[in-house]
Amino acid sequence: MFGMEITDLAFLFTVAVAVGGLLIAIVFPLISNNNASRRVESIATGKKDTRSSFRSRFAEDSKDVRRRQIQESLNKQNEDRVRAKKKITLSTLIQQSGLEISVRFFWMMSAVSGLVFFIAPLLAGAPIYAGAGAAFVGFLGFPRWFLGFLRRRRQDVFLNDFADAIDVMVRGLKAGLPVSEAMKIIASESGPPVGPEFAEVVDGQRVGISIDQGIERMVERMPLAEVNFLAIVMTIQSKTGGNLSEALGNLSRVLRDRKKMKNKVRAVSQEAKSSAAIIGALPFVIMGGLTVLNPTYLNPMFDTTTGNMLLVGSGTWMMMGVLVMRKMINFEI
């Protein structure tokens, strides 16, 4: 009797398990297919399922919006920079060089320079066409080169102090100062050209120019990638918000790393620059030595037409070689 009860219980348990498994096998696919069809329908119709991971979807959407705004700001800054490079004017070049002169005064000084370059070869006994070529160089070439030299020197001084100015802004923001007050500290404490450039931004705020617009104008006066980085950071912060002190701190580290990289590239390329300088100076050194040892040996080069043509041709080819070597060893970061 006891054995029969155990057998009946086992049989009932087996039947219950079989029925439960059968129900699961029939009902679960219907439920899963219903959920799958709902997801397929939502994807096909473009409707979002509000019941699944709303917070994660909202976070992804906000990140996409911020990423799109950052990309738009970067594209706009790059387009403005390329456009500014294409249509640089003489007045802009004078402003970037740091000279406080007018375009008219520049052309007057260019005329004086051309006259000096014309008279100097004639006094040395050179023919008239040599004086005309020197006058052309003195009128159009030398003044532009001088402006470019002043511009590069001013930009180098600016880059040397720019990272420190960003650090001043970061410390001021962490201390609770607004951005305008931090820029006032830079304008008053930093030397030229960093101080005057930030002073222009501060003065622009008094007439209704925003900070990001003022920094964009700074990019026009100081067309450097580092200043463009600051303009991008300020533009993004004004549109999307965020921790400005942290962003400027990261920018300061980037600027210092770029400065280290430039110094490393300059040190690596110094050997090539020294070789180019020696090769470029070698003909003049040899001519000077020959003139000292035998003063009349090179007279045919200056007294005859053939010699003059050889000098002009040699000088032209030598200039082309110097420019090619300069292009090969000039690394831009």
Record keyword descriptors for this entry.
333 residues; mainly alpha
What does this structure look like?
This protein is an all-alpha fold. Among the domains are: 157-253; 269-333. It is built from 13 helices and no strands. It has helices at 2-45, 54-86, 90-97, 103-123, 128-174, 179-189, 194-206, 211-221, 225-240, 244-268, 270-293, 299-303, 305-329. The longest helix has 47 residues, at 128-174. The chain starts with a helix and ends with a helix. The relative contact order is 0.05.
Rough shape?
elongated
Radius of gyration: 37 Å
Mean pLDDT: 78
Number of helices: 13
Count of DSSP strands:
0
Quote the distance from N terminus to C terminus.
Answer: 97 Å
- What are the secondary-structure elements, in order, as H or E? HHHHHHHHHHHHH
Low-confidence segments, ≥5 residues, pLDDT <50?
A: 46-54
Give the fraction of residues assigned to helices.
Answer: over 70%
Sheet/helix structural class: mainly alpha
Main β sheet profile: none
Topology summary:
Elements: H1 2-45, H2 54-86, H3 90-97, H4 103-123, H5 128-174, H6 179-189, H7 194-206, H8 211-221, H9 225-240, H10 244-268, H11 270-293, H12 299-303, H13 305-329
Please outline what is shown here.
With 333 residues, this protein is an all-alpha fold. The chain contains 13 helices and no strands. The protein starts with a helix and ends with a helix.
